[in-house]
Amino acid sequence: RAPGPCQQQPPVRAEAEESRSGVFADLTAEELSQVVRYLQGHLGVPLVDASRAKPSDNCIASLDVQLPAKAEVLRFLDEGGTRPVREALAVLYFGDQPEPNVTEYVVGPLPTPAYHRDVTVRKYGGKLPYHRRPVTGKEYEDINALIRRELGKAPFFLKACCESDGSDLAILTTAPRGFKSGDRVTWFVLFHNVPGTGYYLSPVGLEVLVDHEDLQVSHWQLRQVFYNGQYFASMKHLEDASVDNSLVRIKKPRAETVLGSMRPRSPPGSPGPLHYEPQGPRYSVRDNHVTFQGWSIAFGINPNTGPRLFDIRFRGERIVYELSLQEALALYGSNCPGGMSTRYMDGSFGIGRFSYELVRGIDCPYTATYVDRHYLAESNTPKTNQNSLCIFEHAAAVPLRRHFSDSQSLYYGGLRKNTLVIRSVSTLINYDYIWDFMFHSSGAVEVRVHATGYISSSFLHGQGTDYGNRVGPHTLGTMHLHHIHYKVDLDVDGQLNSLETQDMGYELVKDPWSMQNTMERLYLRRGRLEKEDEAAFPLNSPMPRYVSFTGPRPNEWGHPRSYRIQITSFAGEHLPVSSPMERSISWGRYQLAVTQRKEEEPTSTSIYNQNDPWTPTVAFADFINNETITNKDLVAWISVGFLHVPHAEDVPNTVTVGNGVGFFLRPYNYFNQDPSVDSPDGVYFSSEQEAGACRDNPLACLPHTASCTPNLPPFSYGGFLNL
Predict the structure, then answer these.
(1) Model confidence over 57-92: pLDDT tens digits?
(2) Phi, then psi, of 675 in degrees rounded to 5
(3) 355/425 Cα distance (integer angstroms)
C-alpha cells in the first residue's frame, strides 16, 4: 500500500534559553517603525525619506540593533542580572547643515523610545565627514540620469557601436571614488542589457568618469570618457572622433553570441534525491534561537555586515560569544579604468540588506526552515526579506567516524555525519555569496563561504589577457581577489583564555635499544604566545599548524581545555602595504590575528571606509599594539579568501565547486573523549548479532519508520517583490 504522510515529532525546546536569546535579536518591523517616528519628532530638523533625499537633505540612512556591552549581557545570561535595555543604532546623513556630516545615535528604550544620544564622537573621535557616506540608491539614480543625458550627445557613436540610443545600456558602479580623501569621482562601466541574461558579461567598451562630489546635483559633471583603449575629454569628443572615422568601433555581438543566460538548455529530467525528515525536524527554531542535539545558538543578520551568531553553546557550555562576518572585499585588475580601480568593500553596500529570499530545493533543502528578516535602509519604511535565512539538518553522506574490525573481535561501529546548518545568501551586484555556519556532533563549528553568481568583466582590448582570460567575443574575465573577514569571540571554559601553539619537528637521536644507529624522531613543539604582535600571523607566512584558545582548567588527562582554529584559505595579497588605501583593509594583512577584546573595537572595518579608504574611519592595524593575551578575554580575527582568474567555465556563472573557503573551531582536549559518543545516531553490531534486527541497529528500522510521504509545502517565491 502507499505510504502515509510523515508524522512530525516536535523536538524538545529549551524555553529559558529561547527567552534569553532575545537580547541579541534583530529589530522587528514594529521597532524599526517606532524608531523612525521618534527620530522624526525629536531631532528638530526636517528629515526627508532617504529614497528621495538629495545629498543636500537630511535623512535616516539605516537602523540596526545596538547590542549591549558584553559584561552587561553576561550578567543577565549567567548571573540572573537585569535584562539589558533594548536600543537601536541610527545612522543619519545631515546634508542640510552648515557643516554636513554623518551622525550616529543610540535610541531607546525599545519598543517605546524616549531618548537618543549622539555616540559619533565617542566611537570615532569626532564627527564623520559627509564625503564618507555610502552612496544611496537615489544618488545612483541621479548619476544614471546624468550619464544618459551625456550619452544623448553621441547618437552616431551609440548607433554604430551598440545599435542603441543609450537608454537600454546597463550602468555599473566601481569603488572607491578617486585618489584622496574628499574625492567623490567614480568610474561607471556600461554594458549591453539583454533581458534575462547577466549583463556583466557584455561590456560595450564605454566607461565614464562622473564627479558627484558637490551637494547640488545640478553641479555634477562627466569628467572623462574611455572607449576601447582610448580616453576622451567628453562624449562630444568621442562623437566627433566617431563621425570623422578616427575611432576604431567594435560592433555589438550577434544575438547568438550573447553570454550569460541561465535558462536551462535541456528539458526537465526526473527528480533528483530529496532531503526529508521522516519524523520532522530534529532541531527547534523559535524567534532568533535554534537548538540541536546539545547545540544552542542565537542568530541574526546585520543589514551592513551580514550574518552574526551569538551565545553559541554546546552541552550547556558557552564556546563562542560572538561569531560574525565583518567584511567581503573584491579587488580587481584590468587595463580598463573601471576594472583596474575597483576595490569593492561590500559591507558599505549592504551584505545583510541584499540577502534575498532563498529558493526551496536549490539554495537550501526543500524542507528546510525558512526565516524572514526585517531591515531599514535608505527608506523610512521597514522592508522584509522573507525566507532569507534557512536552517536545516544536513546529512553529509560521509561518516563522522567509523571502523570495521576484522581481527580479534569482529564488529562494525559508525556514526553518520549530520550537521545543523544556518545559511544565508547575499547578492552583491554580480556576485552571490553563500554563508554557512555548521554545527557538528563532535563539538566542532565549521564556517564556510562559497562564491557564485556572475564574474565581472572588462572590454577586451590591447594586452587585456595580462589581467584575465578572454571568455567572449569582446569580454575579458578580469582577475580578482576575494577576501572575507570574520570576528570570533571565543570563550573557552570561561572568558579568560590564552593562546597556545603546537607544531612538528624532527630531532636526530640514536636508537635507545642499541645506540648503534641514528633516526629522525618526530616530536611536538609546544608554545604559548604572550603578546598580540606574536599572535598576528601575516598572510602567506608560516603559521603553527595548531593554534588553540585555552581555558584555565585541564581536562581529565591534564591538558588545558582548548578549542583549535583551523583555517582553509588560498588568499592572495590584499594590497601592498605601501598603498595609500591599504590601511582601510589592513585586516587583510593577517590570516589570523588575536587581540584583547574591547568594547571600543567591535568591528574590524567600517561602512565609511569604502568612500574614504585614504583616511579610514576604522583601521584594523591599530588593534594590534602588543598588549598581553595571557588569561584575557580574546578575539580571533580570521581572514579567508582566494584568487579567481575567470575562465571559459565561469560562463554563464561561477560554480561553487572549488570556490569555497572557511575555517573550523574544533575541540582540542576540551572534552575527555569525543562527545559524539552520546549521539543517538550511532550504529554498532558484531558478528554475533543479527545486523538487520531493528532493536540493535536503528538503520534496520528505516524501512518501517521512514516509509512515509514527506510533507512538502507548495513551492512559492516572492523574492522580486521588494525590488
Answers:
(1) 999 999 999 999 999 999 999 999 999 999 999 999
(2) -65, -15
(3) 5
Domains of the chain, CATH where assigned? 29-128 (3.10.450.40), 137-243 (3.10.450.40), 294-668 (2.70.98.20)
Cell numbers for 586, please give them.
Answer: 589592513
Question: Hey, what amino acid is at 260?
Answer: G
Using CA atoms, how far apart are residues 186 and 397, in angstroms rounded to an integer? 49
CA distances (Å), 207 to each of 34, 171, 190, 212, 337, in order?
43, 9, 6, 16, 8
Helix (H) or strand (E) holding 150: helix 137-151
What is the torsional sign of CA 304, 307, 353, 37?
negative
Nearest-angstrom CA–CA distance, 43 and 269? 60
* Strand pairing class (169-173; 185-192): antiparallel
**CA nearest 722: which of 225, 389, 272, 388?**
388
Q: Phi and psi dihedrals of 195, rounded to 5?
A: -55, 140
All three cell numbers of 467: 589581467
CB atoms within 10 A of CB 559: 13
- The answer to whether 342 touches 91, Cβ cutoff 8 Å, is no
Residues 6+ apart with CB under 8 A from 26: 64, 65, 288, 300, 301, 373, 374, 375
Contact 222, 236 (CB under 8 A): no
Strand partners, 485: 327, 639
Q: Which residues of 386-412 are buried (b: 16+ CB within 10 A; e: fewer)?
A: bbbbbbbbbeeeeebeeeeeeeeeeeb
pTM of the model: 0.95
DSSP secondary structure letter of residue 20? H
| Region for residue 178 given its phi and psi (left: phi exceeds 0; alpha: psi -120 to 50; beta: otherwise) | left
Distances (CA, A) of 82 to 87, 108, 491: 15, 16, 22
Task: Find the DSSP H helices in 383-427.
Answer: none
- Type of residue numbered 189: V
Dist. CA 615–CA 636, nearest whole Å: 25
Question: Which among 153, 333, 127 is positioned nearest to 239, based on CA atoms?
Answer: 153
Range of weakest confidence among 5-14, 107-116, 231-240: 5-14
Share of the chain above pLDDT 70, in %: 98
Contact 70, 599 (CB under 8 A): yes
- Which residue in the list 130, 431, 454, 486 is annotated as catalytic? 431
Contact at 8 Å (CB) between 519 and 367?
Answer: no
Of the candidates 390, 312, 311, 393, the one whose C-alpha atom is nearest the C-alpha of residue 355 is 390
What are 186-229's pLDDT values in tens digits? 999 999 998 888 999 999 999 999 999 999 999 999 999 999 99
Which entry of 26, 57, 96, 346 is annotated as an active-site residue? 346
Cell of 611: 568612500
Owner of C-alpha cell 568621442: 238
Q: Catalytic: 431?
A: yes
Whole-number Å distance between alpha carbons of 717 and 359: 7
Number of other residues whose CB lies within 10 A of the CB of residue 129: 18
Q: Give me 584's grid cell.
A: 582601510
Check residue 223 and give left, alpha or beta (phi > 0: left; psi -120 to 50: alpha).
Answer: alpha
Cβ(118)–Cβ(105) under 8 Å? yes
